[in-house]
Specification:
single chain, Aminopeptidase, about 25% helix
């Protein structure tokens, strides 16, 4: 069995369930990582405007370099955006650590946007993305976008 990178509605629903949000398949793309046929990580991309794209990330287990390559290949290479935007609740320490480790930086904050407090907008530009180089980029079998 092993690891597989997949895309589609099942991934989007899986991520949305973990983020207490909705998934609108017709306006989004979702990329996930399966381990032994079980989803362990996923990303939803939405609100693409040719310059930037929003992402929502859920990870429950360790992930592979190939998955990192795939989730950054899609917005920067396929969609050709310059910036990824990741909204994170201020009280979600695990998500803040994750996106910061990936290279995202806090760019803006909306006070009291969530019931639990502020919404932080983390961003990562193409120039600052460390996952497009040889180590990750050579390994990313990106699934075809779902219709």
């Amino acid at each position: 069995m092993g690891w597989n990178i997949i895309s589609g509605h099942l991934v989007g629903d899986w991520v949305a369930k973990r983020l207490s949000g909705g998934y609108f398949a017709e306006r989004s793309q979702a990329i996930g990582l399966e381990k032994n046929a079980d989803l362990v990580a996923g990303v939803i991309y939405e609100n693409w405007n040719h310059r930037s794209i929003m992402c929502h990330i859920a990870i429950e287990e360790r992930i592979t370099p190939s998955f990192l390559g795939a989730i950054f290949h899609y917005p920067y290479i396929v969609c050709e955006v310059d910036k990824i935007i990741a909204p994170v609740a201020d009280d979600n320490e695990a998500s803040k650590r994750l996106v910061e480790k990936m290279g995202f930086v806090e760019e803006a904050r909306i006070k009291d946007a969530y019931v639990s407090g502020d919404m932080i907008f983390y961003t990562l530009t193409r120039d600052n993305c460390k996952y497009l180089g040889e180590r990750y980029g050579q390994k990313c079998p990106v699934p075809a976008p779902s219709a």
